[in-house]
Amino acid sequence: MSVIIKTPEEIEIIREGGKNLAIVLHKVKEKVAPGVSTKDLDLYAEKLIREMGDIPAFLNYRPEGASSPFPASLCVSVNDEVVHGIPKRNVILKEGDIVSIDLGVKHKGLFTDMAMTVPVGKVSEENLKLLQVTEQSLQVGIDAARAGNTAGDIGYAVESFIRAQKERKYGIVEVLAGHGVGRMIHEDPFIPNFGKRGTGAKLVPGMVIALEPMVNLGTKNVTIDDDDWTFRTADRKNSAHFEHTILITDGDPEILTQI
Ligand code: MG
After folding, report:
1. What domains can you pick out in the chain, each with its CATH number?
2. Residue 157: what pLDDT?
3. 9 C-alpha to center of ligand 1: Å?
4. Residue 46 Cα, ligand 1 centroid: separation in angstroms?
5. 21 CA distance to ligand 1 centroid (A)?
6. 113 alpha carbon to ligand 1 midpoint, in Å?
7. Do the Cβ atoms of 241 and 213 come closer than 8 Å?
8. Taking 60 as the threshold, does the pLDDT of residue 1 lie above it?
9. What is the spatial order of strands in the sheet that 222-224 belongs to?
10. What is the pLDDT of residues 208-228, one digit of tens each?
11. 98-112 burial string, b = 16+ CB within 10 Å, else e?
12. Which of 13, 32, 99, 170 has the fewest Cβ atoms within 10 angstroms?
């Protein structure tokens, strides 16, 4: 598989879909509160997506090698869950939790992908800082996503920013990465959140990519639950995740998953 350059017509559709996705995810964010179940968030997201005439991209998604399809529209990952948490009726958010919500949408046949980590009520200072650093690292990665740069330049920028934080040595998840997106939910290229300048795929105008740093309070290492989906930090410390779908242009990158 090689990198797909989107046509102007495709980009227009992806831009529309990205806006829809951002509207839905921000509404889901507003529903996050103590007492809400992770399944409530999933059902709300699915309802909103379908009302817009779009299709939840993760529902029944089965990547090559997966033992089962993903059973929900929204990935909901609480605290030490990194990504791909399965929403459940009996997982009730409580004050002080952090919850990552990750959503893919298919709009007129084309895909976009977005995620954010949200505090549940009032959270600790270290959790708040984790969210800030992770969100800022996404913006740093976006700033490096310019034509002529490479995937490695993005990874280098994200890693350098996180390593420069004085308050602790954060873990940067390495086994999961950003990716091309559009005709499929996951396309080439692979865009790690660490790396060396000048390595990896070259960025060219018309590429649509999802950048998604995952940052841990402790170790970078992760485990997978018995459900074969949920990634969790190996030391069970908290993890955050922010993601945007963006377009590489001749100038500044364009964030497609925004309102
Ligand atoms: Mg993604």
Report:
1. 8-255 (3.90.230.10)
2. 98
3. 22
4. 17
5. 13
6. 5
7. yes
8. no
9. 81-83, 231-233, 222-224
10. 999 999 999 999 999 999 999
11. bbbbbbbbbbeebbb
12. 13
